[in-house]
Design goal:
Helix content is about 20%, strand content about 25%. The protein is α/β, with parallel strands linked by helices.
Length: about 325
């Protein structure tokens, strides 16, 4: 597999400084790239790696033009990371595609399910009654799409994804639990990508809804009746409890959790490992976790936290006392 620089720039644009006939045989990070590799620099703090890189060509921002030219060939792009993303897409399209059936013979597709003629269903997948798979969508191996769940167009569901398992609903009954049947479904918008072994529960009464362009990493749990707005992205091991509403263009860091029935506005960004315990109505970055420390120090600080309220009251009392002495 190889592409000439001229071919890359012809498709992706950008300003090429260097030999357009240079043959690129791979994409690689700055530190490990060789003379036939194409790399990129997105963060100026890695200028030292740029100078030392053996890459045949490097994608850089206009501000890095001089530094890049001192090193060798470069492609000038306003957004190097975005250019790199589109380069990976171009590269994958140029790879030879292994032949194979559109619907793998081991897949189980209910006669009452609708799978678009351009969709691909991989090995050991299950598409249950009344489910619908949209145009251009790809289901990797062992994906399960439950009854009446809908997958939009151009979606990618990675191995082990489960759409439409029952939400966690039980009513207490004399010390035992009575099952609440989950009567909704899951609706996935267009251009959604869902990572391996992520589970999205069907709604109790109304559907669980994932908006257009949402990106979910591996091992994420989405509870019943959750709504996630367009182009929100969530990193691995995050969890969203039932009936939470997350806005558009949000990001949820790895292993963060959102409690049930909360609302997050558009453009809310939650740091990794944070626990969201209240609704957030203002866009911005939010962090909620106790910083890691040596265990002994952590225990002392945790014990101090428990006393904060009483300390606050004592300080207020002292302030009143001091004010009284002034008068």
């Amino acid at each position: 597999m190889a592409l000439r620089l001229a071919s890359i720039v012809e498709v992706l644009q950008g300003e090429l400084c260097g030999d357009p006939q240079l043959l690129i045989t791979g994409l690689a990070p700055l530190e490990s790239a060789g003379p036939e590799d194409l790399s990129f620099l997105n963060n100026p703090k890695y200028q030292q790696q740029l100078a030392a890189s053996r890459a045949g060509c490097v994608i850089v921002a206009p501000a890095m033009r001089s530094a890049a030219l001192k090193r060798g060939a470069c492609i000038i792009a306003d957004q190097p990371y975005l250019y790199y993303a589109r380069l990976t897409q171009l590269w994958k399209k140029s790879l030879p595609q292994p032949p194979g059936p559109r619907l793998h013979p081991s897949a189980v597709i209910d006669p009452e399910a609708l799978v678009d003629a351009t969709a691909t269903v991989g090995p050991l997948c299950v598409v249950e009654r009344g489910a619908r798979i949209g145009a251009g969508s790809v289901l990797k191996s062992r994906v399960t799409v439950g009854e009446y769940c809908v997958v939009g167009e151009r979606c990618i569901l990675h191995s082990g994804v489960v759409l439409g398992a029952d939400g966690f609903g039980f009513a207490p009954n004399a010390g035992a639990w009575e099952k609440i049947e989950q009567l909704g479904a899951v609706r996935i918008g267009n251009d959604v990508e869902i990572g391996a072994n992520t589970c999205i529960d069907r709604g109790a009464l109304q559907d669980t809804v994932i908006g257009n362009g949402v990106k979910l990493d591996n091992l994420i749990q989405i509870g019943h009746n959750v709504q996630i707005g367009a182009h929100t992205a969530m990193a691995g091991c995050a969890g969203v409890a039932g009936s939470a509403v997350i806005g558009a263009h949000c990001t949820i860091g790895g292993a963060a959790n959102v409690l049930g029935h909360l609302t997050l506005a558009d453009h809310v960004h939650i740091s990794a490992n944070s626990m969201v315990t209240r609704s957030i109505h203002k866009p911005g970055q939010y962090t909620g976790f106790f910083p890691i420390d040596e265990n002994a120090a952590w225990e002392k600080n945790a014990a101090t936290l428990k006393q904060l309220h009483s300390l606050r009251e004592r300080i207020k009392a002292l302030e009143k006392m001091i004010e009284g002495t002034k008068t």
